Amino acid sequence: MICFLFQLISDAGFQDEIKSVSTVCQQIEVFSRVLKTSVASFLEKGEEYIKKHLPEFTNMVCHGEHTYLYTQALLSILAQDNRGGSQLKRLCQEINKCATQKGHDVTPITLALSGSAAYPRACAALSAMLSKNSLNPADVTVLFKMYNSNDPPPVDLIRTPQLIELLTEALFNPNCRVNPDHKPKYIFLLSYCASVHETYKKGARKSINRDELKQTSQAIEKVNSIICENKSSSDLICEVGTLYQCIRFPVVGMGVIRWVAYAVNDSSYFKHNTDHTPLHIALLDEVSTCHPMLHPKLLELLISLFESEFKELDVLVQLELKKVILDRMVHLLSRGFVIPVVSYVRQCWETKDTDISLIRHFVSEVLDVVAPPYTLEFVQRFLPLIENENITGSIRTEAEHNPITEFITHCHQTFDDL
Question: Please, which residues bridge with residue 197 across strands?
Answer without folding.
Answer: 209
